[in-house]
Automatic annotation (TrEMBL):
It comes from the Eukaryota. Homooctamer. It comes from Komagataella pastoris. PROSITE patterns: D_ALA_DEHYDRATASE. One of its GO terms (cellular component) is cytosol. This is Delta-aminolevulinic acid dehydratase.
């Protein structure tokens, strides 16, 4: 067995152990990045409500607010001026009584998402609009699909409904649809729906292909009011130890015709991101730094355990290192500033 390159035997000074010459200058340190963080990689999550004048902070998500359409446009305008390229929309229906078993409100033409798509499209023609597609914000039970009487997911009805919602968002002007339920077969139904609607050629299907069920979605569920009233999502979203299952889910969504791949959460799942980079090498890989990850970094910064800006760079550089090309991040407004400095 060989532990040492042969030529080193002639060099007792171990010249190959001297690495610091490669990073002793700030510019050199940047040259060591295979890829640099860039404004065009960032996708900003927006919570949109059906109360047009609402602008409401979310206590567990520092600096993030829920917006009604009237407040959304000026807010997004400020970010577009700083270089924002893409957003992902999450609907938050607040009107009492709109939630039902089937999530009917998800594609209500007067509902928050379709209204937001239309206003954003009109005001910012170049903004790339992705819509999260899920039923959990709209169902009375808070699950991501339609349920059988025994509370388990009715796959057939769920994916049909999710596909119908995705098509409505694309018809309203969304550039991309991102189904986040993880129910088998929804990518195929969405693609077929887009094809029948004549929209498949201009809609990017970005699947949450490896979405793990876990402890990091709490602040989001506060923001969106989408916590399941009974049970959890463990029967349709992956167990945290499920590396093999994650691979199979990535392959499933590629076979069903997805265009892009999201891995979520990110920081605790960088091995899965790296695996996706190999397994889905012909697809753009997107990391979603979820609400819990974001909130934890803020909490640590408030306790002076970390410096917020440095830790945010470190985390996001980790996503790129693992193989991500896109990042859904609540830090997007900060990065638009930081990357301008
Ligand atoms: N299914 C909807 C959805 N899409 C993205 C997130 C979470 C994002 C975050 O925590 O920032 C969720 C919530 C969930 O699965 O409970
Ligand atoms: Zn050996
Ligand atoms: Zn959901």
């Amino acid at each position: 067995m060989v532990h040492k390159a042969e030529y080193l035997d002639d060099h007792p000074t171990q010249i190959s152990s001297i690495l610091s010459g490669g990073y002793n200058h700030p510019l050199l340190r940047e040259w060591q990045h295979e890829r640099q963080l860039n404004k065009n990689m960032f996708i900003f999550p927006l919570f949109v409500t059906d109360r047009p004048d609402e602008e409401e902070p979310i206590p567990s998500l520092p600096n993030i607010k829920r917006f009604g359409v009237n407040k959304l446009i000026p807010y997004v305008g400020g970010l577009v001026a700083k270089g924002l390229r893409a957003v992902i929309l999450f609907g938050v229906p607040l009107k009492p009584g709109v939630k039902d078993e089937e999530g009917t409100a998800a594609d209500d033409p007067e509902g928050p998402v379709i209204q937001a798509i239309k206003h954003l499209r009109k005001n910012f023609p170049d903004l790339y609009i992705i819509t999260d597609v899920c039923l959990c914000e709209y169902t009375s039970h808070g699950h991501c699909g339609i349920l059988y009487e025994d509370g388990t997911i009715n796959r057939e009805l769920s994916v049909r409904r999710i596909a119908a919602v995705a098509v409505k968002y694309a018809q309203a002007g969304a550039n991309s649809v991102a189904p986040s339920d993880m129910i088998d077969g929804r990518i195929r139904d969405i693609k077929e729906g887009l094809l029948s609607a004549g929209l498949a050629h201009k809609t990017f299907v970005m699947s949450y292909a490896a979405k793990f069920s876990g402890n990091l979605y709490g602040p989001f569920r506060d923001a969106a009011g989408s916590c399941p009233s009974q049970g959890d999502r463990k029967c349709y979203q992956l167990p945290s130890g499920g590396k093999g299952l994650a691979h199979r889910a990535l392959i499933r969504d590629m076979n069903e015709g997805t265009d892009g791949i999201i891995v979520k959460p990110s920081t605790f799942y960088l091995d899965i991101v790296a695996d996706a980079y190999q397994l889905c090498k012909d697809y753009p890989i997107c990391c979603y730094q979820v609400s819990g990850e974001y909130a934890m970094l803020h909490a640590a910064a408030e306790k002076n355990i970390v410096d917020l800006k440095s830790i945010a760079f470190e985390a996001h550089q980790g996503f790129l290192r693992a193989g991500a090309r896109l990042i859904i991040s609540y830090f997007t407004p900060e990065f638009l500033e930081w990357l301008s400095e």
